[in-house]
Automatic annotation (TrEMBL):
Acetylates the N-terminal alanine of ribosomal protein bS18. It is found in: Cytoplasm. NCBIfam families: rimI. Pfam families: Acetyltransf_1 (PF00583). This is [Ribosomal protein bS18]-alanine N-acetyltransferase. Signal peptide: none annotated. Transmembrane segments: none annotated. Belongs to the acetyltransferase family. RimI subfamily. GO terms for molecular function: protein-N-terminal-alanine acetyltransferase activity. It catalyses: N-terminal L-alanyl-[ribosomal protein bS18] + acetyl-CoA = N-terminal N(alpha)-acetyl-L-alanyl-[ribosomal protein bS18] + CoA + H(+). The keyword Cytoplasm applies. Residues 1-150 form the N-acetyltransferase domain. The lineage of its organism: Bacteria, Bacillati, Actinomycetota, Actinomycetes, Pseudonocardiales. Keywords: Acyltransferase, Cytoplasm, Transferase.
Amino acid sequence: MRLAPLERADLVRCAELEKILFPGEDPWSVQAFQFELENGNFYLGAHVEPAGLVGYAGMSELGSPGHMECEIHTIGVDPGFQGQGIGRAMLVALLDRADTMNAPVFLEVRTDNVPAISLYKKHGFEQIGLRRRYYQPSGADAYTMARPGVTQ
Ligand SMILES: CC(C)(COP(=O)(O)OP(=O)(O)OC[C@H]1O[C@@H](n2cnc3c(N)ncnc32)[C@H](O)[C@@H]1OP(=O)(O)O)[C@@H](O)C(=O)NCCC(=O)NCCS
């Protein structure tokens, strides 16, 4: 498995995976991913040969040097490749980058998303809030989770 910066050529597959992974949640289109890249957000793709792109993850980096905050916007792994450490590898890569900025990291996750919550808790995230009906159109609730910045 190889991690690489997400490129425009990857976005059609990302949008296909979104439809599979988030069917009731207004999955992101190619244009939505493109917008994320154009905004300078940090995105990685996970590639496995010969399958190609099997995962993606990204976050925004907000603030000014010394006062940065990161927010994970999305992370997803092709169902045929889940449970093999790919989600963990992508999350660790995002967190390593946040750590170079001493930045706390925030995210939202559906309250019933047991695999994702387990992954986040194993990597230092704690639940800090509850957002009712955060996801649309499902109306599902989200936890806000945070991981403090590291002091280097
Ligand atoms: C969440 C997701 C990205 C995890 O990716 P993955 O590659 O399957 O996960 P990994 O194999 O790297 O597992 C890492 C950890 O995640 C958790 N995890 C993964 N699958 C799990 C499952 N079915 N049940 C419970 N925990 C699970 C475990 O804590 C696991 O650690 P362990 O191997 O020590 O038990 C993946 O399940 C996914 O794409 N889900 C759909 C999209 C989604 O919900 N994204 C998150 C939105 S907030």
